[in-house]
Amino acid sequence: MRSLTDTTTLHNGVKMPWFGFGVFKVKEGKEVIESVKAALKAGYRNVDTAAVYKNEEGVGQAIKESGVPREELFVTTKVWNADQGFDSALNAFETSLKKLELDYVDLYLIHWPVKGKYKETWRALEQLYKDGRVRAIGVSNFHIHHLQDLLADAEIKPMVNQVELHPLLAQIELHEFCKNQGIQMEAWSPLAQGELLNNNVLKEIGAKYDKSPAQVILRWDLQREIVTIPKSINENRIIENANIFDFELSRDDMEKINSLNENRRVGADPDNFDF
């Protein structure tokens, strides 16, 4: 992992950049357009959005205005909970594609494991994959038991599981399970919504490498072979977040960061959400 364009190969052979740009809570319009363009200018090639973020149009516009060839980009979006089910997920995909103004999506995810619906939704994603509308399909916020349940009937195994993951929630068992299944783990909220930026352990480790706590965390993700998608609307921060390919954390420092785990979430629990 020496540069922003380095990739992991998903189990179907598709290459996905290890490092990406998330746009959760980035406002539609100028804010999302400018921040995505700044990320693409800085060399990011992986952009992650979702129907529920309500900024797919801005992401699409930024891609168009950036001048970066489409085939160099890896674009993810997600089907929202209210649209789960076979037909409704297919319709939701068409809406997302139209908003993004793209011919295909690189990765389409089920956003949350809606009880009694995610298997039907998965059938829709399998259909989209077979039809060549998406290059890869996966899930988000799935625990081990959700994955086991899905795998019992799935024709195609998910290529990615995107979950909340940061040093306070290291997701060790889930990571192990996904590795064994050939499912690529991806971290959302890798900086715990900024909660970890003043952590003394991370500051101390950062000082050793002349890096910020954010850069230390993002490097920790990569060294654990986890795709990570930090978000920022500040161009300097966008560039700084990506400046993590010129150092490597020692085994000792990796262990120190691992020891911060409290299995504590900043987001909802996939077993207990009401949206």
TrEMBL record:
Family (UniProt): Belongs to the aldo/keto reductase family.
Phylogenetic lineage: Bacteria, Bacillati, Bacillota, Bacilli, Bacillales
CDD domains noted in UniProt: AKR_AKR5G1-3
Record organism: Bacillus canaveralius
Pfam families: Aldo_ket_red (PF00248)
Keyword tRNA processing: no
Name of the protein: Aldo/keto reductase
Record's keyword annotation contains Lipid biosynthesis: no
TM stretches of this protein: none
UniProt GO molecular function: oxidoreductase activity, acting on the CH-OH group of donors, NAD or NADP as acceptor
Site, Lowers pKa of active site Tyr: residue positions: K78
Residues forming the catalytic site: Y53 (proton donor)
Residue positions binding substrate: H111
Gene3D superfamilies: NADP-dependent oxidoreductase domain
Record keywords, A-Z: NADP, Oxidoreductase
Domain annotation NADP-dependent oxidoreductase: ranges: 30-262
